[in-house]
């Protein structure tokens, strides 16, 4: 089976730099993949990407060594199983707040006897290899998103579920749940305290901790704290920021004679 480079990177103590795909297009996904991200996450929860757009995006990522990750819309078995059948090598599931929900997540993403995932790895066989079924349980990475006040109350119960590999913090939803501003990097003190606590408990349970970031500087600071999976912005945000930077520079420059007004 094809190596899951996330697991290899984490085993060596490294941190994965993850990109985020909100644009439902295979060419933009391919372009992002060729920039050298360790992994790219296709977001099915928020935004405009659906399953039919996701599949060619996974195919585009497969032109590189970048690990394909998908955030599913919700804790729902068919969405998780079809995402894995399409060739995702990691799944991020939002709003996991109880031990029971974490147990269901693990069950839906693992074949028997470790879980209840139905067998039908249609494209996963093409991406992962002919022996996919024999190794998928150990290769696929399962993330539970920790982003609710209830999840904070149940942290140790969630993190002790056998088969869960990692947790992923959504700073904005977590902040909202705690009555704070919904931001990525410069979070309010109460939210920062919760983030630090989640990271500490993840380390205690031997789980990888991941988190969403708005900037490279924010992501690097969190790697220094011990996060091993850091998302930086998104394709849509990066495109907008790049466009704004070019336009701001051009509009600040003096216009030359004969040129169009800008």
TrEMBL record:
Q: Which domain of life is it from?
A: Bacteria
Q: What are the recorded GO MF terms, alphabetically?
A: lyase activity
Q: What protein name does the entry list?
A: Aldolase/citrate lyase family protein
Species annotation: Variovorax humicola
* Family of this protein: Belongs to the HpcH/HpaI aldolase family.
The lineage is: Bacteria, Pseudomonadati, Pseudomonadota, Betaproteobacteria, Burkholderiales
Question: What Pfam family does this protein match (any one)?
Answer: HpcH_HpaI
Q: Which InterPro entries match?
A: Aldolase/citrate-lyase_domain, HpcH-HpaI_aldolase, Pyrv/PenolPyrv_kinase-like_dom, Pyrv_kinase-like_dom_sf
The record's keywords, sorted A to Z, are:
Lyase, Metal-binding
The HpcH/HpaI aldolase/citrate lyase domain, residue ranges: 20-239
């Amino acid at each position: 089976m094809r190596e899951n480079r996330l697991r290899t990177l984490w085993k060596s103590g490294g941190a994965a730099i993850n990109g985020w795909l909100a644009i439902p297009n295979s060419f933009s996904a391919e372009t992002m993949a060729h920039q050298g991200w360790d992994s790219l996450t296709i977001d099915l929860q928020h935004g405009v990407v659906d399953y039919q757009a996701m599949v060619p995006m996974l195919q585009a990522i497969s032109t590189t060594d970048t690990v394909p990750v998908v955030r599913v819309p919700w804790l729902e078995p068919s969405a998780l199983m079809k995402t894995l059948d399409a060739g995702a090598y990691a799944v991020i599931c939002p709003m996991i707040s109880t031990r029971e929900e974490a147990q269901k997540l693990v069950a839906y993403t693992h074949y028997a006897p470790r879980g209840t995932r139905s067998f039908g790895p249609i494209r996963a066989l093409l991406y992962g290899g002919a022996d996919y079924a024999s190794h998928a349980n150990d290769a696929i990475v399962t993330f539970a998103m920790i982003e609710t006040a209830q999840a904070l109350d149940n942290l140790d119960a969630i993190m002790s579920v056998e088969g869960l590999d990692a947790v992923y913090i959504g700073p904005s939803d977590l902040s909202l749940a705690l009555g704070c501003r919904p931001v990525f990097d410069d979070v309010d003190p109460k939210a920062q305290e919760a983030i630090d606590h989640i990271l500490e408990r993840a380390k205690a349970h031997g789980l990888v901790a991941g988190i969403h970031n708005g900037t490279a500087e924010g992501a690097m600071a969190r790697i220094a704290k011990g996060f091993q999976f850091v998302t930086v912005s998104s394709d849509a945000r990066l495109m907008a920021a790049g466009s704004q930077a070019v336009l701001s520079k051009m509009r600040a420059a003096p216009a030359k004679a004969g040129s169009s007004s800008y």
